[in-house]
């Protein structure tokens, strides 16, 4: 379903439309392509999976046993990805890979991080991307060059995000600090710093709304904050059930009016942030949702735990079953 004007009633009607349950463990990361109807997932079974979201169909699986799969995002090309490694980081330093799902080929390695990458973001306007690692650094890269283009040393676990114009990027870290950089001259340091008072937890995730007016922070103690992206003021906040070792992810709708998130008790929630209030709560998911993203151009979102669920507005039709895996390709390297 293409993206229509969202309102409280439409959000409340959203229900599971398709389920994919053959993942061999937890799903680590999900990402939509910005312009094509494609979704990629990475999971504990060292797989990357490509989905057609318009038809709820799995297109391809590739396995990556040597390095594992962790954070993943699309480049601008619909079959090219950046994926972070889970294994052998200290021995090889091959913390990130630029790869093609089309022919299961690694196009380039990016070496430098000494610990797990926990945040990954592609520039919306060019071949730049950023990675934040538990080694307390953020590195800036260019798909066309092996060498790191810049490094920022930080305090604690970093979360990174570009705004939709690619002109500004944000880095969030422990103690509720959010630093904003001009992506053209980041080496001059942040041009602004916001502090989210009263919460000293590390930040799992940070996102900009499409209109650039708001930022969304999710912390390790399962608090969610919506901030004014220009002044740093807290617009609203939501506190969710703890989820013992499973970080949760929140997402904006494309119009920036709603925020959705999982919770430690397995439920999903949606809030209207213009008049802060909960508008929907869903009980029928499997496990704690660690990955949650709204599709850029459709009235749908995906939620992932050990299963992947597609959520669409329910107009009284029964949920569509997921396609059987008979025609899927499974590649390994």
Automatic annotation (TrEMBL):
InterPro entries: Swd2/WDR82, WD40/YVTN_repeat-like_dom_sf, WD40_PAC1, WD40_repeat_CS, WD40_repeat_dom_sf, WD40_rpt. Belongs to the WD repeat SWD2 family. The lineage of its organism: Eukaryota, Viridiplantae, Streptophyta, Embryophyta, Tracheophyta. GO terms for molecular function: chromatin binding; histone H3K4 methyltransferase activity. PANTHER family: PROTEIN ANTHESIS POMOTING FACTOR 1, WD40 REPEAT PROTEIN SWD2. It is found in: Nucleus. It comes from Arabidopsis lyrata subsp. lyrata. GO terms for biological process: regulation of long-day photoperiodism, flowering; regulation of timing of transition from vegetative to reproductive phase. Keywords: Nucleus, Repeat, WD repeat. This is Transducin family protein. Pfam families: WD40 (PF00400). It comes from the Eukaryota. WD repeats lie at residues 20-61, 110-144, 252-281. One of its GO terms (cellular component) is Set1C/COMPASS complex.
